[in-house]
Fold Transcriptional regulator.
Amino acid sequence: MPLLDFDLLKKLVVGIGEVSEITGVPTRKLRYWEEKAIIQSEKDGEGITRRYNYLNIKKILLIQELLDEGYTLDAAAKKVETRMKTINDVFLKLTEAASENKNDE
């Protein structure tokens, strides 16, 4: 059994209230970060609850961690963008490796 289920991670989308509970970041702050284009929610239409995917949740956790360490929001956001690119590259490689393993079986 694989350590990570990539299909599940792609489907993992939760509402702003749940994200606030998971991360400890208040919903008001999440909305502000979204206004500043630091994070992005998935919205189906006007007035629909904001929903966030796994990568945005990870990004929120990393930004809050850096804020707690004394970084400004802009500096934390820039640093997290670099980290997220690295994480994304690793996930792509792992997905490719998992796909190759399935094909070899």
Q: What stands out?
A: The longest helix spans residues 73-104. Helices lie at 6-11, 16-23, 27-35, 54-68, 73-104. The domain at 6-104 is CATH 1.10.1660.10 (Multidrug-efflux Transporter Regulator; Chain: A; Domain 2).
